Amino acid sequence: MLFNSPAFLLIFLPAALIAFFLIAIWSRAFAALSLALSSVAFYAVWNPRFVALLLASVVFNYCMGAALGNADGLRKTKLLLVFAIAVDLSLLAFFKYTDFFITTINELTGAQVPLAHIVLPLGISFFTFTQIAFLVDVSRGVVTEYSFVHYLLFVTYFPHLVAGPILHHKEMMPQFASPTTYRFDAALFTEGMSIFLIGLAKKVVLADGLAAFASPLFSAVENGTTVTFFEAWGAALAYTFQLYFDFSGYSDMAIGLSLLFNVRLPLNFASPYKSKNIIEFWRRWHMTLSRFLRDYLYVPLGGNRHGPARRYANLMITMILGGFWHGASWTFVIWGALHGAFLVANHGWQRLRIFRHDISPRSAMFLSSCATTATFFAVVAGWVVFRAQSMHGAARVLVGMSGANGFVLPSQVAAIIPGLDRHIGVKGNMPLFGGGSVMGVFEQLSLIILAAVLCFGFPNTQQMGTRMRIAAIFLSIGFVIQGIFFGHAPSPFLYFQF
Amino acid sequence: MKRTPSPRWLIGTVLSGTCFYIFLFMFIVDRPLTTNEIGAYMQYKANYLASIRDESKIAIFAGSNGRFSHRCETITAQTGVACANLSIAVGYDFTWQMSRYWPYLKRGDVLYMPLEYWAPPAGRVKINGEAPYIVRHDHAALAQYSLTRMVSALFYFDIRYLFSGIGEMLLQKSGAQRRTSLRSLTVQGDERGATTEKSEQYSAFIQGLPHPSVSLEAYTDRAFAEAVDPIIETARAKGIVVVGGLPTAFDDAQIPTPVVMWLQTYFELRGACFLVLPNLSKYPRSAFYDTDSHLQESAQIAHSARLGPRLAAIERSTRCSDTVSDADSKSHTHKSPLRLTDTHATSGRRRRIGAWRPCCMNSRRASCPGPNLFVPG
Q1: How many helices (H) and strands (E) are present in chain A, helices listed first?
Q2: Contact in structure between A38 and A19 (CB atoms under 8 Å)
């Protein structure tokens, strides 16, 4: 079930809310249980067969957590922790990476092992990571509460179950235990609803609008199509903003939905495209994943405690594994390595301490804009690799973006600016640019400009004041209703595939 | 709580925002170069139809393939029968369009419908492409919609439509004109000027298009019948001869025989004729202009020259049964009994095609056998 589907909005959500607050009048424990069961039902709508897998994972990790909590001795704790994490990662590897490993072995050895074609259970990457974090926290002695119902709710809680944010046990359990969570709060409800509506607008209006201009080109390049400068940049920028509005829209919806139940989720995005360097970008983009990778991978690897060389190696390892977490494809590994290299370069640059001498405010502003622009374009190049289905496809798009395949516009678009056709190539129809129509080109450019203005010129949902939130809802609500009830079938969130 | 609007504010914002959206598209945002053209096209075609209202005539009604790939000018010149091309573009409600033309069609006229291969409507609520025009310019028609349809029409507009509208309004102010418009129509309503020279800029695009394919499933969800049935029923009530046909397509298009048979059966069971050219209206890609259904002008004329005598024969006899070989098709003024076979121009061999049977002119189901007579040419 999708947050942007009529079934969720008109049936599931009202039913879950009413059940939760009505039962809470009688019993908080049963209200928590009802919310957990609603969440399991939410998951079951996608594929009931995997409910057993989800519940088995929850029970296993809960038992291992309890065992870890009661374990005496460092050695026993470590053994239990390694065993539990190994089981979790094996499960993830089986469902997510089996075909990838088979394909790689086939390519390397020439063997013809048939692919397993295993269906990826929705949200497995997220609920696995959430529970690994729980196990590590237990082994560190951070976890103090072991209510099974609350643990079940912590893992399955439907606002975050399928695509995050990745939660910490310690930030959720106190909320589930608090009596105020079980009392309807009109102010929180309204705040949650306003954030949810803005998230919905990000997804339904902007992300889905941009998708139509990114997907055809990324599909075409896989079939060997050569793309030119404007086509390639049009699709790369469309995808860059689509991904941001899709995932940050989802995160806003999750945060907003959770507030309806008086539960606060951590932020996942903080205007990432405003970042002045890649280090800052990763502090603003998918913040809960960055936090997880930092706390449970980078720091245990040694972090920055053993000199620059080790630090850079740790960064590369963390980012490569972070990329691999996103999907079973070499493009994700290379995307992770690319960002690892960006981070290493960024840290190296900072060590050089260039431009630290006194500069005028105007120069600082100029340099800041240059830094934001450079960071943004580095990220765009990364998203091309991330989005492409193969490195060949990614290379074709990047070559097109470089201008090596020429600068071509549709003849009718070129005709709008007198004399332009003398300087660039002209084609009658460019189906990969603006969907092949003049007004499509206008739509694509307008959407990209609007998205850029919103990303660079406006505060994010959490920073918005009341007036701005009201203005955003006022301007977008008609398009949201159109998209949900009268448009095409609801489109899944991009991060569901991870 | 400074960042939280009060519940009353939130509800007010949602309601007023919704009203603003509706107001925006009912009264402000316009698409002068595309949506508004529908009204102008319909008026243009209705005017011509009115001018020949008392003559026996052929009317061609389809999407843009009807306009680009069929030429009434040729048909009239070749057969002497008046002809009006009523086609505009695919996606507009047939009943709504034809309501403008029915007053000018009379008993014995032929309504030829080479409708585009069917794709079910993409939206969850079935609403056609005329909705924006009706919401913006035809509030009387909007008021006659059912509540469901009216709400669907009012919520037709996504953000891309908004940007297109703004773009078109700006382009119109700057004096920009569309590639095709009323100026590129013949008097009879055919598109003209899609020359081979102009088509060169689209040739790479045309050659690169994937092999088109048509599926039978697209026809079986009732949407096609719901769209076309009212046209056939009204035509029959007025004594107008409906002739189903095939749209133009690439010669490498995958048009399964069951689809053609389904169409034939569909039209025949409703007492209409079904006209299939030996080539199934398929032409090499080099004959196409800017899409996979728009012929270049020379091919448009040639295609119409093949259709014209056949349609004229039906118009004269008011019977589906006909034989017109391509060789014979140069002049047709006789009213001889029509035979049951069609002929390949190239081979000279006669092939039998199923639609050409007198029994189906005004038949009931029992008197109209199934589509087993169809043999593709």
Answers
A1: 22, 2
A2: yes
* Chain A: residue whose CA lies nearest to B161: A443
> Would residue B11 be called left, alpha or beta, if left means φ above 0 and alpha means ψ between -120 and 50 degrees?
alpha
Please state the three-class secondary structure of A347-360 as a single string: HHHHHHCCCCCCCC
Q: Is the Cβ pair A485, B3 closer than 8 Å?
A: no
ipTM comes to 0.88
**How distant is the Cα of A205 from the closest Cα of chain B, in angstroms?**
7
Chain A residues in contact with B294 (beta carbon < 8 A) = none
Q: Is A445 helix (H, G, I), strand (E, B) or coil?
A: helix
> Looking at beta carbons, which residues of chain B come within 8 Å of A469?
3, 5
B139 CA to chain A: closest CA distance, Å? 20
Sign of CA dihedral A93, A97, A101, A104: negative
Between chain A and chain B, the number of residue pairs with CB atoms below 8 A apart is 131
A425-480 residue pLDDT tens? 877 778 788 888 888 999 999 999 999 999 999 999 989 988 999 999 999 999 99
| Count of other CB atoms within 10 angstroms of residue B347 | 10
| Cis ω for the linkage preceding A165 (within 30 of 0) | yes
For residue B336, pLDDT beyond 60:
no
A489 φψ region: left (φ > 0), alpha (ψ -120 to 50), beta (else):
beta
> What is the pTM (predicted TM-score) of this model?
0.82
How confident is the model over A89-107, as pLDDT tens digits?
999 999 888 988 898 888 8
Q: What is d(CA A310, CA B374) in angstroms, rounded to the nearest whole number?
A: 77
Nearest-Cα residue of chain A relative to residue B7: A190
CB contact under 8 A, B156 and A474: no
H and E: helices and strands count for chain B:
13, 9
DSSP string over B221-241: TSHHHHHHHHHHHHHHHHT-E
DSSP letter at A489 equals S
Q: Name chain A contacts of B34, Cβ cutoff 8 Å.
A: 439
Question: Is B3 close to A469, i.e. CB distance below 8 A?
Answer: yes
What's the DSSP call for residue A295? Answer: I
**Catalytic status, residue A347:** no
CA distances, A103 to each of A92, A124, B88, B281 (Å)? 17, 21, 51, 45
State the smallest CA–CA distance between residue B110 and chain A in angstroms.
Answer: 35
